[in-house]
Amino acid sequence: MTGRTARCAAAVLAASAAAFSAACSDLPGEVGDVVLLEVRAPLSPQLEAGDTIRLTAVALDRNGAPVAADLRWRTPDTTVAVDSLSGLVTGRAAGTGRVQATDGSLASGFVTFTVQAAVDSLAVTAPQALVVAPDAPASAPLGTQLLGGVPPAPVAGRWVRYRVVDPVFADTAQRTIELSTGRLADSAVTGSDGAPTAVPTLRRIAGRAPPVQAVVEVEAARLSGRLVPGSGQRFVVQFQ
C-alpha cells in the first residue's frame, strides 16, 4: 500500500465521504478503478482455537464509491487460517494472527486477531452432593476446572459462572443463602491450574433460616458464546 493510499485508508476509517474525496480524488486511475480495500473488522477481534469468524471487505474507487473486485484473503501467520474466497477465519493456536484482503497487487491493512486457547470441557472437581452442618456457616468449596486441548490441559484466564437455581427468591433482598461473593449468581476467573482463583462456597445468611436444600448450577462459555461442554452441571447442597 502506498503512502497516498494509506492516507486514503485513514480517510475511510474517519467515516467521512468529504475527507475521502479530498484525500483520494486525485489518485491516478479512472473512476471505477479499485484504489482501496476496506476490511470491515469485528469490534473485538478475538478467537478461540477452533472457533471461526467471517471477515468482509469492500473495494472503493478514487471517489469512495464501492466497485466490483476479485477479492481474496490471506494470512502470513500459522495461528490463524483463512479461506481465500469466503474470508472465514479460524483460530488455530494461541497467539496473534493477521489477515488481509487482496485484489491483485493491491492489499488492505492487516486485521490482527488475538487467539486464545480453546476451552473444551468444564469439569466438576468437588463432590456434587454437599452437606452443611448446623454449626457450619458455609458449604465446602464448589470446585470446578476448565480444560482444553489434546491431551486436556488447564485453561487459565477464563470465567466460570455459578448460579443458585433453587430455591428461587422473588425478592433477592430476602434471600436466606448466597454465594460467598455475596450474590446469587457470579463468575470466577480461572488460574494456571484451570480452577477458579477464588472458589465460591454457598453460605447461610445470619439470622435467616436456610432452605433444606439448594442447587447451584455452573457453566462456562467460549468466546463465540457457545457453552462449553459440561456446562449445566449442578451442586446439591443440603443444610442441616
Radius of gyration equals: 26 Å
Would you give the CATH topology of the largest domain? Immunoglobulin-like
Order of helices and strands: HHEEEEEEEEEEEEEEEEEEEEE
Number of helices: 2
Give keywords.
single chain, 240 residues, mainly beta, Immunoglobulin-like, 2 domains, five-stranded mixed sheet, 21 strands, 8% helix, 38% strand, disordered N terminus
Question: Which SSEs are present, and which pair or pack?
Answer:
Blueprint: H1 3-13, H2 17-24, E1 36-40, E2 46-48, E3 52-54, E4 56-60, E5 66-67, E6 72-74, E7 80-82, E8 88-91, E9 95-103, E10 106-107, E11 111-116, E12 121-124, E13 129-132, E14 144-148, E15 153-154, E16 159-166, E17 177-179, E18 185-189, E19 202-204, E20 213-219, E21 234-239
Parallel strand pairs: 2-11, 13-21
Antiparallel strand pairs: 1-4, 3-8, 4-5, 6-9, 7-8, 9-10, 9-11, 12-14, 14-15, 16-18, 16-20, 17-19, 20-21
Helix pairs in contact: 1-2
Structural overview:
The protein is mainly β and 240 residues long. The chain folds into two domains: 3-116, Immunoglobulin-like (Sandwich); 121-239, Sandwich (Immunoglobulin-like). It contains two helices and 21 strands. A hairpin with a 5-residue loop joins strand 7 and strand 8 (88-91). The termini are far apart.
Brief account:
This protein has 240 residues and is mainly β. It folds into two domains: 3-116, Sandwich (Immunoglobulin-like); 121-239, Immunoglobulins (Immunoglobulin-like).
